[in-house]
């Protein structure tokens, strides 16, 4: 039998989908250099600067093919990011197929790994007799839900948000219908149809690689494996983030925000950020500004220009508008001793690594949460869209649910759709996290999760073993 060692990796566009699968690929080629990998990269128009500069850092031992970008005019304007991401891949399928054919003719493809949004590309695997894997960039809680989705769709009538009882997923905290991911909010929407289609597609793959680790979600991972789910093998390989892999310390040490953070006392600064694309209304920006002021705490805040859509910045550069002009009058002057403002984008992993950062007010994107865990920083959860509310529930209602004491590592800001979170509530929750007894306890728990995360990535750690199991599966199939 000819030995196969060649793997194709297909990310999908959007910073927080592109980076995790490429970081996984880096770890794969570092730990298992006998495989060679080519990334086939779709994009929607010209990628935002953040994605562009990240793509420049792909190491030479990973080949990359940049596909012709999809024209922004060919996708619905202002659609939900999940729709845009999936549509970009769908429209790129002919060029993905072409790229796979050409790669396979040079060196037969052992496996194709695609991001969850690029699953349609896995249909081509039959033609090349390759194994198929999904890289799912979220936690086990969300993965368990998605795998349950086809059944829920059959069993539940009406909208999920109207369910009277929470949904119980094996090994996970109960979840209310209202906290399910955005595409489930309206079952007749296009976003829901695509979500369900992705969920059904998951059952066709040989394996699912996902960004969690055993010590974080032991009962959920065990339940997933015990349940079987047909022929699918599960590989928790996380945490996969840029913490530990970015080695541009010298360059970023020159940044003013980091110089400022280095001068602040330990655990004294709250980092405020809503991810790579989260946006807030003008009224909400004002309330946060006043809330921060009222809390009396030190802060570093990534401010974006306001929008009434929560994800307006996901595929855009916002450098043409100065977001600072949307802050309340006199705010910068009044808070200049205690606060540092960044316009639109922050070197997040470098910020979180500073000893002075003691809390993170976060929209609860999974990458941000893992980054926070890896440095032991507790969270104020302010979910905006996608599966962020589920992540917030997981953090605030208890990790390691099999244990009697849930590991609460976040304070959850609860608010209804459309509602504005008022400054008093913001100030109270910030003070509680930064100064209160509860905040102190959560910081301690986060420190123990930080150790677990580091252990999972040691040579004999759970995630590195899981990666080796994946490699063994390939070696067997590839005749290596
Ligand atoms: N990020 C960053 N600077 C910013 C905002 C975000 O470096 O100003 C990075 C962050 O470190 C994380 C990713 O972008 O790795 C955001 O991913 P997440 O899953 O948290 O949220 P999303 O962007 O998908 O909403």
UniProtKB/TrEMBL annotation:
Keyword Transport among UniProt keywords: no
Record CDD domains: GT1_Gtf-like
Any GO molecular function: UDP-glycosyltransferase activity
Gene3D superfamilies in alphabetical order: Glycogen Phosphorylase B
Pfam family, one: UDPGT
Keywords assigned by UniProt, alphabetized: Glycosyltransferase, Transferase
Enzyme Commission code(s) on record: 2.4.1.-
InterPro entries: UDP_glucos_trans, UDP_glycos_trans_CS
SUPFAM superfamilies: UDP-Glycosyltransferase/glycogen phosphorylase
PANTHER family in the record: GLYCOSYLTRANSFERASE, UDP-GLYCOSYLTRANSFERASE 72E1
Family that this chain belongs to: Belongs to the UDP-glycosyltransferase family.
Protein name according to UniProt: Glycosyltransferase
Source organism of this protein record: Trifolium subterraneum
